[in-house]
Every structure is written in structure tokens, then in C-alpha cells.
Write a structure and sequence with these properties.
The protein is mostly helical. It is built from 9 helices and 2 strands.
Length: 191
Amino acid sequence: MAWNIPKLRGREKVALEAYYADLTGWSGHVALSALGRGNESAADEIASIALSDFLAVYVHRVEPRGSDDIDRRVVVRFIGLVIARRAHRLAKRLRQSDPLDDQPQGVESVETADEDFLRFREFVPGCLERLRDPKAKTAITLKYARDLDNPEIGERLSVSQQYIGKLIKKSLELLRKCVTLRAREQHHGHA
């Protein structure tokens, strides 16, 4: 079986339907085999994101040889590797979580993060301006000011939702460091 890459790149409905119909069940099984029973929803989400990411990013990098069709086996192997890697990383994070409070180690509670934000929110606009990557600023603004989810943000910025997730995570870490530094400076200035 072969897929027509230009039709997938052009997001033609028939080509997309065939792609998803062909891979959805299989990709969920690949993710579930890496995560284990009891993690069906996480496996389905990993598989769905990997299929979408292939269409958003990788389909544009595929170079068919001689025709517009590419062997399905090549794509299936690639997507399978992506799914397996993501599922193994998630399984590792799940194993590292603290069984006493179901909170991953090294992650503060949502309540603590919200309290800190409320106390130091005056520093956020200045720190947001210090982000160098314009996509990072836009992604953070769309996520928290406009309440968009990662797929919507990815679509607006023409990147995958996985990239948006990583960008937001990295940007929030930079914002947290900046806000903490400014809060310390203010505290030491008033002491």
C-alpha cells in the first residue's frame, strides 16, 4: 500500500481519512504496549498526537523517490518509533512520581504555583517581554490570555502541538526564573 504525499501535504480530505483510518488502531496498540494496561487514554493521546505531528511536520520532509507515492512501511516504522519513544518517556515519568501524593517529583502543587503567581504577577509582563523567541511570547499569550489549547496554538503558528508543548514548558521555566529573580531583587531592595 502507498500514500500520496502531495495529497497528504495538501490536506486532501480523502487522503487524510485513509491515513487516519489506516493507522489509528495500530498506533494506539503501539503506545499501549509501551505504557502497559491501565493507561489506555494516555496511549490513545500519544498515538493521536504522533499521527497529527507527522502530518504537521514530517510529511513535508518526506521525499518520495520517482513518484508521489511512498511506501507505507517507511512511514509506519517512523511513526512507530516516535510513538514508542514518547510512550517510554511518559512511562518513565510515571514511575518517578511520588506514590504518596500522585504529584510528580520536583513539581510544586498547583495551589503553590497559583499563590506564587498571584503574589508576583506584577513581574510577568516585564519578564514576558524578555523572552527572545517571538513564537514563545505568542504561544504564552494565546495559552493563558486567550485560553487556547496546544493544537489551536500550533495551527495558528504553523507548528505541531508537540512543539508548542515544549515551547510553553521552556518559556514558563524562563518566566519562573525571571519572576523569582525580580521578586528577590524587590525583597532585598525593601529589606
